[in-house]
Amino acid sequence: MKKSWIAFLLPKDEYKETRILYFIAESFFLLIGIVLLIIFSNRFSKVLDEEISLVLLAVLISLIGYVLIRYIFSGIEYANVFEEVDYRRELKKMFLSGFRFAIIFAFISSVLKLLEIINFDWTDIFGITFITFILVIIMNYISLRSSFKKNIKS
To answer: C-alpha dihedral over 146, 83, 79, 93, to 10 degrees?
Structure first.
């Protein structure tokens, strides 16, 4: 995989690299199916002419979301979690890193608000920060739990 342009984006662990490549390949075929569906539906009904940018954005988000969801549920993120002690330690680290992420997210959003780059209310900024924090914690928890279950079975 060293000769590919995507190699710098992939992890050094061979197992993780292979799994992520499978996810990317699956998402590519999903993209082909979605694009074909859009082409055929647009051919018979002109519903999507003005909203094509929103449709393409939805396709992009679904591809990224697919790979992310597959990665989260695959159980490959926490390969070294075999015992309950390790699980608890990773759980604490997960909450701390999620909290750090929320602080950085809130800080950057506040700076953008003060520089008048974004026009959100303060309650919106902190609400989005809180929702993002919760989503990051949920995603990491699901990944940790999947990894722990997978590692116990093997």
So the answer is: 80
HEC sequence for 32-85: HHHHHHHHHHHHHCHHHCCCHHHHHHHHHHHHHHHHHHHHHHHCCCCCCCCCHH
* Average pLDDT taken over every residue of the chain: 86
**Nearest-angstrom CA–CA distance, 103 and 111:** 12
- Asked if 34 and 59 count as a contact pair (C-beta separation under 8 A), the reply is yes
Q: What is the pLDDT of residues 38-52, one digit of tens each?
A: 777 776 776 666 567
Could you tell me the two tokens for 51? 């909203």
Long-range pairs, 144-149, Cβ under 8 A, ≥24: 144/77, 144/78, 144/81, 144/87, 144/90, 144/91, 144/94, 146/72, 146/73, 146/74, 146/75, 147/75, 147/76, 147/77, 147/78, 147/79, 147/81, 148/78, 148/81, 148/87, 149/75
Whole-model pTM? Answer: 0.71
